[in-house]
Design the sequence.
């Protein structure tokens, strides 16, 4: 619904129609938030009624869905905590891997809003999550994605030493591992060249 309304807004030239569509989009978003919140409340209530006789797979599914509703509501810490617990208590199971990705998504969005000290904390949580995913689901693309994100984030910040440490989480034999190592090598060379240029030297000048 959102995409259809947004597309219609992009295509129309009529200002009155744009205002009408803006109102419809906001109403749809508000309705969606209320529905997600209601689902979250139902899941919390359902989890509180769980007993040892109940199906464990359904319990983990409910936890996964709850973490998803938290993420949709921008309750990022709650999403990360719930999804992280579900991932670790469902090691080797499909709900565990899916919950791990919810946790990864939550931390990634937190980083966009974090200051220095908090950013360091979140990066450490990401490292632990990536290590866990790679150890538990070594062949899964999701696990490689977690490690790749960690390496790329530290490279963007210019912390190449830390990126090199995180690089060890990604097997060199994989396509992702090979690509990341090439990227790190190029980034290191670029950084080295800039430092030499700043000192008045040209690394590409044989003289």
Sequence:
């Amino acid at each position: 619904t959102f995409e259809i309304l947004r597309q219609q807004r992009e295509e129309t030239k009529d200002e009155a129609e744009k205002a009408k569509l803006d109102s419809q989009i906001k109403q749809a978003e508000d309705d969606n938030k209320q529905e997600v919140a209601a689902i979250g409340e139902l899941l919390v209530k359902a989890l509180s009624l769980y007993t040892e006789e109940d199906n464990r797979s359904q319990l983990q599914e409910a936890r996964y869905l709850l973490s998803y509703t938290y993420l949709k509501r921008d309750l990022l810490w709650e999403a990360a905590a719930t999804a992280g617990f579900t991932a670790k208590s469902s090691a080797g199971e499909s709900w565990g891997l899916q919950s791990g990705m919810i946790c990864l998504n939550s931390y990634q969005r937190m980083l966009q809003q974090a200051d220095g000290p908090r950013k360091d904390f979140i990066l450490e949580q990401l490292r632990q999550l990536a290590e866990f995913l790679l150890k538990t689901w070594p062949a899964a693309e999701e696990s490689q994605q977690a490690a790749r994100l960690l390496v790329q984030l530290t490279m963007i910040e210019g912390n190449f030493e830390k990126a090199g440490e995180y690089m060890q989480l990604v097997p060199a034999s994989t396509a992702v591992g090979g690509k990341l190592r090439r990227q790190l090598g190029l980034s290191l060379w670029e950084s080295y060249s800039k430092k030499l240029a700043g000192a008045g030297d040209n690394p590409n000048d044989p003289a």
